[in-house]
Write the structure tokens for this entry.
Amino acid sequence: MKQIWPLLVLISATPLAAAQPFTIAATKQSYPKLADAVAAIGDKDGTVLIAPGVYHECVVQGAGRITYRAVRPGTAIFDGTICESKAVLVLRGKAATVDGLVFRHLRTDDGNGAGIRAEHGPLTVVNSVFRDSEEGILGNDDPAADIRIDRSTFSGLGRCDRGLSCAHSIYIGKYRSVTVRHSRFDRGQGGHYVKSRSPRIDVSDCSFDDVHGHTTNYMIDLPGGATGAIRRNIFVQGKDKENHSAIIAVAAEGAGNPSAGLKVVGNRAHQVADISWPTALVVDWSGSKMGIAGNEVGPNIETYRTQQPPAQRGTIGQIFYYAGKLKQKLRDKVLG
């Protein structure tokens, strides 16, 4: 009988090829770096499947329609590394979808370190987590594209320090529309939870838990106004506020967008115990007729309050208003 054990030893001693973490779904081709997989898709459509792991890398998508999908939601974690001093995913291709990823510990010198920077094209985010960073999602302007966020969590985000403009959990510029549904916001560290300059907004079936927030402001800020709907959300205002005057602010920087018909319906708004200050579910600077109905509010909360438009506030009010506008222009220049 021939001896075969040396061959068995040789086989067992041969290392298996290491699995590559980034796989293109259509071709089954795997790559060691996310940027390699994105480059392989190029200007085509494709899905990158991301294996469980903690990744210290980032990518700039300049073309194509690409889906970034965790093989198992919540196990593909992007930690600390940012491209172009902007974000983990810098998106300026034809379109992008982010599914099941985690983004954490993201900071930049300008205070805008984000999980996602949307610069061009439609964006869909589902089942993802953004935590302990300066911003979750930051969007520039694309009036022809929409942003949709669903079943995602934003925790420990935002800042208002270092003499820089504030960062927010979500801050979107002039996209065509912004939709946020079935998502959770908590433990904000400054700024607003959702800030949008889009002319159309839909925030529905979300929870905003400010109990452990730190120097936070509004929960939803529509600085130029908007149409659309804010429906069936739960708002809990915490004690540590930089600005506690409103839960939802409409057109605080001027009515750049129409707000007539904005629906604020079926929401619940309360404050933690021992808060004595008054606030309002909606504070409106636009003077537009809105559809506000069926909201449940706590004892110190007005459902709706109007404020004078900037031109009617007098000299001091206008100084503050235009100072705010200048601050925003400087911020937009930085983002550009």
